[in-house]
Design brief:
alpha/beta, 11 helices, 18% strand, elongated
Amino acid sequence: MPGKACLGSGPGHCGLSLSLLLPPTTLAALADSWLREDCPGLNFAALVTGAAPSQAALWAKSPGVLAGRPFFDAIFAQLNCQVTWLLPEGSQLVPVVQVAEVRGPAHRLLLGERVALNMLARCSGIASAAATAVKIARGTGWTGHVAGTRKTTPGFRLVEKYGLLVGGAASHRYDLGGMVMVKDNHVVAAGGVEKAVRSARQAVDFALKVEVECSSLQEAVRAAEAGADLVLLDNFKPEELHPIAQALKAQFPRVAVEASGGVTLSNISQFCGPHIDVISLGMLTQAAPALDFSLKLFAEGATPVPHSRRS
């Protein structure tokens, strides 16, 4: 059963099963591609293990937020193995704790082991960093959105964006079609902020929002006058950011302000302020430490332990 958690009191989105966001066909295709990458040909280790019915315990060995259950399930579903979860998605992990049990032929359990652990460690790490960022921001009394960015790993974006959501952060735009973000290079190519925004507005009409990266208050004002929905103040120091955001909001209260660039878990509180609507952190997907998980086989009827016992 998919886990549910509440935004504000913990990671995730209150009352929502985030797994519903993930199309089954996409999950299956991703799992298949990951398994093919790891074993595109002969699996010699299968001759060592054999195909006897077996069971393995999934252990969490570092603290953080559990995230990635649907992908884990999809990997082992490709191998005709069954997963039974002991903890819901978004759970706070206190090591060492058993998280799940996986059953199936021994050679197939071990074929999926490393792929599943890699995914779960990465997704849970991102959720953990996102949850920390949200907790710090909320601790200042700020009520805006903590968000990720499009700085994701090629081929792994769905997992990383999902991890952000489990951690309680906003995923930001999923891809180029999610919003028109006019960056500095777009402005140069278009011949100015006004031209860039007008072209963007004409292209998307009412369907999408337009966000413009600005390097000064003057540029932000021109972007707002041209019809930008959001202004991105990138790489500003907090002492520069807040006066500019305040001045812009005084003229254009409908325009949302996003702060980004150089934001980390150690300084995010400095970017929180009454005139900032969104704070985005590339480090949530680029630099979040992976959590430590292990998958250990155990004999039928035996008590699972997080380490191998051999006589």
